[in-house]
TrEMBL record:
GO terms for biological process: glycine betaine biosynthetic process from choline. Belongs to the aldehyde dehydrogenase family. PANTHER family: ALDEHYDE DEHYDROGENASE-RELATED (PTHR11699). It comes from Novosphingobium fuchskuhlense. One of its GO terms (molecular function) is metal ion binding. This is Betaine-aldehyde dehydrogenase. The lineage of its organism: Bacteria, Pseudomonadati, Pseudomonadota, Alphaproteobacteria, Sphingomonadales. Keywords: Metal-binding, NAD, Oxidation, Oxidoreductase, Potassium.
Length: 462
């Protein structure tokens, strides 16, 4: 009998669906079906592939509100976010790669009078995408659109905590005319992900997840020397210089910490503030943080919803208690919220720690919840060294009016995705990815083409 699991609405405890767990037989069957479909898909022109992706993008946009509501129920994220970000960014990605598809090409190389060379950008074959639970529909689109544009098939395993919107993406691709087998959703936990990772018929794994899972996948992929793209965790710095517009910087700190209840990989959770503006910054930060409205995320007035699960709530609360025990001071928050929210949900007050030092656990480890640490600094060189003192390198942000300084500091930071005077804005035209232990490779932009194709070099004697 097929094993199953349930997915719940973490904001209310409501059971949303029961789904089958894919085991070895299901993975083998999906890979065989994908491989057969991919052979035909690879023969289509980029224009034909692009046309289907564009149709799917249109269908995503038509169904935006319904998909946003489903995403909110599966993740606990506020509907005011999912309506304007999650589905939109997925549709943008499909549309972007629809346009890119006909332009995927190799190069001609002139090799003197008696020879020339050329390169071919070929699809990899069957790819697998494995998703995290924080941006489920966006992740399904960010992985599938470039894979399909390049002529691959892709099997997608959403997080076991948020499996529902990927199912809708599969239906939309089919309705848009994508041949059967090219985008398949398989459900399950880490074991299903490991089966995909080790499968000899899969050419590539693209993971969005935690650093430990990334390491396991890289090790598992080694047996078949699979190509991997890893989008992993972070503990990113957000640096606020004294000349910054303080209210804009507070807005940036909010964007970098409390959007999606802090469950965002690129969050700037180490907020370095130049000492001379610290009192003014903290006064505004505290007042504005205490105005954030928590509640049932399906309510359009709610600004912060539930964390993803009870286990994650316990992890985040554990970090908050460790922060207090290690001597950090709670400026605001620091507790679970049970008043004014559905009783079965997992709500944590947006929390700001001050009086932090660089060696504290809450400053060093990824918490993945609404927990900000504030760290004063005195000079540019000092803050660069401290910002880089981490094994992560996903993102970084800087607020200053001095643009010469902004570019100088950004150039010195070990981070793959950076912002100046804003945070966490990720348009599909720009590459997104991390350095150091935050990952390997990039998603989005033309750069993604390199991660979903292989290059063939051809020498021609004349
Ligand atoms: P996770 O690593 O626990 O799980 C991610 C996915 O990997 C899930 O689908 C899970 O089932 C699967 N998985 C688990 N063990 C596996 C194994 N051994 N082999 C194959 N697959 C396996 O991460 P999560 O808790 O779902 O997500 C939170 C993490 O994701 C955070 O660390 C966050 O920073 C990171 N994240 C990164 C990005 C990015 O783009 N860099 C975006 C979102 C989230």
């Amino acid at each position: 009998m097929t094993e199953t699991f349930q997915t719940i609405n973490p904001a209310t405890g409501e059971v949303l669906a029961t789904l089958p767990i894919a085991g070895k037989a299901e993975v083998d069957a999906a890979v065989a079906k994908a491989a057969a479909a991919q052979k035909e898909w690879a023969k289509r022109t980029g224009t034909e592939r692009g046309r289907i992706l564009r149709r799917a993008a249109d269908l995503l946009r038509e169904r935006n509100d319904e998909l946003a509501a489903l995403e909110t129920r599966d993740t606990g994220k506020p509907i005011q976010e999912t309506l304007v970000v999650d589905v939109v960014s997925g549709a943008d990605c499909l549309e972007f790669f629809a346009g890119i598809a006909p332009t995927i090409a190799g190069e001609h190389l002139d090799l003197g009078p008696a020879a020339f060379g050329y390169t071919r950008r070929e699809p990899l074959g069957v790819c697998a995408g494995i998703g995290a639970w924080n941006y489920p529909i966006q992740i399904a689109c960010w992985k599938s659109a470039p894979a399909l544009a390049c002529g691959n098939a892709i099997i997608f395993k959403p997080s076991e905590l948020t499996p529902l919107t990927a199912i809708e993406v599969e239906k939309i691709y089919r309705e848009a005319g994508l041949p059967d087998g090219l985008f398949q959703v398989l459900h399950g936990f880490g074991e299903t992900g490991a089966l995909l990772t080790e499968h000899p018929g899969i050419a590539k794994i693209s993971l969005t997840g935690s650093v430990p899972t990334g390491k396991r996948i890289m090790a598992g992929a080694a047996a078949t020397l699979k190509n991997v793209t890893l989008e992993l965790g972070g503990k990113s710095p957000l640096i606020i210089f004294a000349d910054a517009d303080i209210e804009n910087a507070v807005s940036g700190a909010h964007l970098a910490n409390f959007y999606s209840a802090g469950e965002v990989c690129s969050n700037g959770t180490r907020v370095f503030v130049e000492r001379s503006i610290l009192p003014q910054f903290l006064a505004s930060l505290k007042a504005r943080t205490e105005r954030i409205k928590l509640g049932d995320p399906i309510d359009p007035a709610t600004q912060m919803g539930s964390l993803i699960s009870e286990g994650h709530l316990n992890k985040v609360m554990g970090y908050i208690e460790t922060g207090k025990a290690e001597g950090a001071e709670v400026l605001t928050g620091g507790h679970r919220v049970t008043d004014g929210v559905p009783a079965a949900g997992f709500y944590v007050a947006p929390t700001v720690f001050t009086g932090c030092t660089d060696d504290m656990t809450v400053v060093r480890e990824e918490i993945f919840g609404p927990v900000m640490t504030v760290l004063p600094f005195d000079s540019e060189d000092e803050v660069i060294a401290r910002a880089n003192d981490t094994e992560f390198g996903l993102a970084a942000g800087i607020f200053t009016q001095d643009l010469t300084r902004a570019h100088r500091v950004i150039a010195a930071l070990d981070a793959g995705s950076c912002w100046i005077n804003t945070f966490n804005i990720c348009p599909v035209e720009m590459p997104f990815g991390g350095f150091k232990q935050s990952g390997l490779g990039f998603e989005n932009s033309r750069e993604a083409i390199h991660h979903f194709t292989r290059l063939k070099s051809v020498y021609v004697a004349m």
